[in-house]
């Protein structure tokens, strides 16, 4: 067979020809959209690629981006890797010191940033990012006043490029992109994605029984493009020729909802909290929203609650689906689709199945390993460390000593604890560091959270481990009430219907909001930190609502 | 990223776990079926693999099969490549001398055959197939009396193997299978398929906007498993966990129809003639058939006529789809799905689009090259040689001098002549050797055939080039009438509605059947050969119906 490498530009070659008239649409304001075709897109990608070469960017160089989800950012997704350089998407929500660490660790040579990020990047320059030798600012009109230097306008660069630039052919294992984990302990760890990994992952996601990403879809990418290649969704949309909708600068819940209605969006993906916030927005809104076009809502980062699945299904006929992934896996590991032989079961059983992390996607091998290092059976109850192996799983962290802790014997130790059921659906019980070990028995914080979030008077809930003199660790629940009548006793009794007595949290603290990480997951480390400073009282002082007053 | 190779056994690993309860069903008699699960299948595959190793089969050895579509043959699909050996599927419909050539050229070390093939293989032994050192016979009960030696019962071998055998990991470019072209000129040419190519092709076919192969499908594989990996359909079904239905030994049209009704088959694939014969069977049957479960019928080998597309759609709601492929491409090159922006056009225009060969599948690059070697525009009218390039396209023929004629500059010259429209749909005009060049202008035999086959009184039609004193070549039509009232003048007038006068065939010969190749394509070479022996008279003598009498 021909030695044709799996390169991102091979996908682009096909899409710009076959789906030349399909659109990429970016929200630019309330009810306002920028729209152009994949043919226009590909020309600008080629211009960008050739301009970067002229600009002195070399194969292997890291090009950083600090940007929202919009068409220019998407141009860098194919333009930068197209010349063999590495797209380093930087998390916009990190503190400047963390961003500085990332840029210096990756040794980014150029930064491509959004206009509203100029003040942040000026701060980064003061902190010291010596590898960066130029700044390219995306946006319309002239570049705003800035101390950044040398500074260039992104569109000027694109205009100076050549739209008939031909991409070079190189080894498919060449680095295409990199992303750092949103590690809540220690410095973030860098993961380098190869062209091969990204092409294979996009192919898997484009398969039946996955995302439902076909050519006719109009797909809204809510998940940030700075995080794990935007879950590889933009690549999958391009591969399939689907209409890609990007929410632009500073989108709010209202913007997602309005965009879906305006553009008849058929599918979207984002953090679980997005699905919750959109629901709350729609509920509180003083007008009806027609979101009937929305067939699929993929919620990730953590498992969506039964309540949120049911609300979307009952209100708009939207099928809420989940997967399971992480930065180290490009990112998808599992995707939850219901096997036809299981779909015939009762509604409750099917919903219980949909609450699981899903089955491994093709090419992905998984196992659960016990304390003695032996593989555990796929019985749905044997809980152990969750290990994975695939052509799109990281072999190492980028120049990082911590590789040897996580990559062992050709497998990646995810750091999650879980079980696998007899049909290969994974059940993630906890991050191993979030496990609660009470009196020698362990308690799943995720199981308790899911149960709490299914309570009609609960808006958000998280359960963390706190130290205990006798049992060593005990669960503590932080709950955002949705109704002011909610009481601690009510929750305790409710949980007792499904859990053993010793699983029930000792305290239920009513808070205004659960602290979240930069990618929208519950920040249990922060809650444990606050607790360490002063127990329940400190939590209530910092994030408490005092009484169970509903949050507007 | 991890260096995890794309191996067939990686697909099996997942399917036997995730889709363990899904079925592989083989027709064994009228209304009788053998059925077992993918879990059973995988155990037998592992047994077969380990038994072959014990039997002395080594990595790289060619293992030949001469067999129908059934579960045992499918076991060899993963069992043989699983140990790094090469599955050589031999065309059952070739003459013994051709089969002998294939076996000797491939140097098959073992032959795995169906029981009904024993007389043929005994003949092959007499002709001389010295590389074969053992014969393994599939079937039930004891091996029938035979001169083959040493001879083994397939099921005994499987029983002696180990069901917990672990497949080795090796380079993804390792040969997995091989197949010879059904070349109508000269000796067949061998194509060797790598694991990588077959995994990638299965992933492409499993994508949305392709075959419609999802887990819930019940797929009937009519295309022979000896030809081009059965179009890679069995691999795709396994990858997706779909129910795979195999028509077993000596299936007839009636068997396909009954199997679809019995098992509520949802999709099938086979040669265009299968779709025609099934229609004719249903029409002539004295009872109603409920084929309403059949959503998708993929007809290949050549383009299905508009008439056959419409009949299935109107009668059973079955969507007839076509692709375009060849042995050298694992085999798919294009697949015809209608882009949403084109689906809005009128019914006639959409049917015209469905008559085209389709768009290139992912990872496949295509071009049309003019006489001067330059690439022609994708305008739907510029006709030239059709070239392709992909990771599942052959780089060479197996130990064959003719490689240098077909593989040039990293591209494969398909030998087809065609155009590409502005949306990337290919329009195959002819095999270059079937082109009719009349008075310096070329005539597409395929365009004429398609038009003729859309005539309600025509059952089959083919158009070939015959020598002509003045114009050098002229078209000749061989037509199988469906109605005895059909006349030559009627066809001539009908064609004049759509074609220039000089395109109209000089003769329309009514025949009982169009001769076909071993894979069901119209055998134009044979018709040209008969014509060379005695012109129209010889054709009418050999295959003519005399008057336009309908064929029962």
From TrEMBL, chains A, B:
Occurrences of domain AMP-binding enzyme C-terminal (ranges): 448-521
Keywords for this protein: Fatty acid metabolism, Ligase, Lipid metabolism
Residue span, AMP-dependent synthetase/ligase domain: 19-398
Gene3D superfamilies per record: 3.30.300.30, N-terminal domain of ligase-like
Gene Ontology molecular function, alphabetical: ligase activity
Segments forming a coiled coil: none
InterPro entries in alphabetical order: AMP-bd_C (IPR025110), AMP-bd_C_sf (IPR045851), AMP-dep_synth/lig_dom (IPR000873), ANL_N_sf (IPR042099)
Protein family per UniProt: Belongs to the ATP-dependent AMP-binding enzyme family.
Protein name as annotated: Long-chain fatty acid--CoA ligase
């Amino acid at each position: 067979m021909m030695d044709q490498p799996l390169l991102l530009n091979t996908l682009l070659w096909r899409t710009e020809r076959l789906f030349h008239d399909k659109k990429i649409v970016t929200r630019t304001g309330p009810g306002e959209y920028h729209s152009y075709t994949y043919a226009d897109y590909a020309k600008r990608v080629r211009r960008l690629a050739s301009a970067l070469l002229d600009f002195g960017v070399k194969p292997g160089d890291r090009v950083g981006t600090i940007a929202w989800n919009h068409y220019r950012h998407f141009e860098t997704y194919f333009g930068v890797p197209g010349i063999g350089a590495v797209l380093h998407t930087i998390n916009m929500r990190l503190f400047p010191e963390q961003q500085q660490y990332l840029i210096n660790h990756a040794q980014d040579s150029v930064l491509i940033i959004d206009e509203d990020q100029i003040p942040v990047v000026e701060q980064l320059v003061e902190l010291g990012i010596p590898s960066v030798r130029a700044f390219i600012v995306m946006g319309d009109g002239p570049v705003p006043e800035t101390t950044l230097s040398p500074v260039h306008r992104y569109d000027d660069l694109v205009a100076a490029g050549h739209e008939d630039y031909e991409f070079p052919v190189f080894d498919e294992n060449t680095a295409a992109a990199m992303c750092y984990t949103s590690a809540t302990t220690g410095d973030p760890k860098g993961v380098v994605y190869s062209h091969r990994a990204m092409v294979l992952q996009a192919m898997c996601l484009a398969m039946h029984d996955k995302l439902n990403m076909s050519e006719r879809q109009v797909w809204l990418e809510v998940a940030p493009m700075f995080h794990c290649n935007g879950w590889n969704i933009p690549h999958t949309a391009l591969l399939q020729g689907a209409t890609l909708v990007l929410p632009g600068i500073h989108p709010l819940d209202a913007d997602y909802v309005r965009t879906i209605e305006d553009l008849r969006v058929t599918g979207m993906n984002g953090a679980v909290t997005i699905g919750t916030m959109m629901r709350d927005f729609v509920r509180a809104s003083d007008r009806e929203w027609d979101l009937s076009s929305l067939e699929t809502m993929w919620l990730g980062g953590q498992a969506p609650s039964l309540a949120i699945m049911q609300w979307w299904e009952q209100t708009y006929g939207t099928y809420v689906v989940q997967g399971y992934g992480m930065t180290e896996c490009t990112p998808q590991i599992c995707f939850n689709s219901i096997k036809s032989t299981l779909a015939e079961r009762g509604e409750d059983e099917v919903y219980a199945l949909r609450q699981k992390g899903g089955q491994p996607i093709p090419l992905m091998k998984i196992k659960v390993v016990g304390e003695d290092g032996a593989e555990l059976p796929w019985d749905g109850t044997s809980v152990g460390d969750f290990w994975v192996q695939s052509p799109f799983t990281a072999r190492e962290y980028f120049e990082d000593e911590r590789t040897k802790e996580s990559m062992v014997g050709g497998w990646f130790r995810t750091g999650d604890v879980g079980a696998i059921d007899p049909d290969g659906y994974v059940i993630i019980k906890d991050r191993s560091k979030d496990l609660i070990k009470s009196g020698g028995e362990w308690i799943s914080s995720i199981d308790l959270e899911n149960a709490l979030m299914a309570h009609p008077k609960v808006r958000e809930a998280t359960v963390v481990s706190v130290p205990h003199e006798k049992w060593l660790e005990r669960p503590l629940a932080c709950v955002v009430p949705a109704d002011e009548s909610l009481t601690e006793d009510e929750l305790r009794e409710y949980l007792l219907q499904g859990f053993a007595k010793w699983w029930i949290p000792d305290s239920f603290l009513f808070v205004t909001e659960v602290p979240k990480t930069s990618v929208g997951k519950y920040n249990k480390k922060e809650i444990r930190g606050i607790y360490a400073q002063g127990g329940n009282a400190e939590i209530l002082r910092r994030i408490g609502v005092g009484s169970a007053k509903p949050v507007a």
